[in-house]
C-alpha cells in the first residue's frame, strides 16, 4: 500500500519535513517514490507547501495520507478538491473536523470568570 507521509529532515531540535509518497512497509526515512512537498513546523507561521497536481494524482491512485499528512493537505486546500472528485471518501477524513476544532479551541485563550 502506498502512503503519503512525512520524512524528517533538518538538524536536532530544528525539524523540517518533506511530504513524500512511499510504500507503507518502508521506514520513516527509508526509500520513497516521490517528494510532493515540504513542511516547516518551526517557522512562524508554519510553512506548508505541496504540489497540488501530484498530491491529487496520488490520492486518486489510492495513496492514503497519514493523519498529519492529511491535516497538511487539508490546510493547503488539496483535500477538499480531492473530496469534490471522490465524495464517497468523506467518511475516511471525518477525523480532520474534530482535530481542526480541537486546535482552534486550544488556540483561543481561556477566559477567567
From TrEMBL:
Keywords: Ribonucleoprotein, Ribosomal protein. The keyword Transit peptide does not apply. InterPro entries: Ribosomal_bS16 (IPR000307), Ribosomal_bS16_dom_sf (IPR023803). One of its GO terms (biological process) is translation. It comes from the Bacteria. SUPFAM superfamilies: Ribosomal protein S16. GO terms for cellular component: cytoplasm; small ribosomal subunit. Belongs to the bacterial ribosomal protein bS16 family. NCBIfam families: S16 (TIGR00002). This is Small ribosomal subunit protein bS16. It comes from Fimbriimonas ginsengisoli Gsoil 348. The lineage of its organism: Bacteria, Bacillati, Armatimonadota, Fimbriimonadia, Fimbriimonadales. The gene is rpsP.
Amino acid at each position: 500500500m502506498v502512503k503519503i507521509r512525512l520524512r524528517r529532515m533538518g538538524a536536532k531540535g530544528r525539524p523540517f519535513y518533506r511530504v513524500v509518497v512511499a510504500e507503507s512497509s518502508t521506514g520513516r526515512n527509508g526509500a520513497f517514490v516521490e517528494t510532493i512537498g515540504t513542511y516547516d513546523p518551526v517557522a512562524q507561521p508554519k510553512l506548508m507547501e505541496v504540489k497540488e497536481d501530484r498530491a491529487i494524482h496520488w490520492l486518486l491512485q489510492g495513496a492514503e495520507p497519514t493523519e498529519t499528512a492529511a491535516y497538511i493537505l487539508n490546510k493547503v486546500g488539496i483535500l477538499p478538491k480531492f473530496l469534490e472528485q471522490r465524495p464517497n471518501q468523506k467518511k475516511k477524513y471525518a477525523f480532520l473536523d474534530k482535530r481542526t476544532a480541537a486546535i482552534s479551541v486550544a488556540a483561543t485563550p481561556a477566559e477567567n470568570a
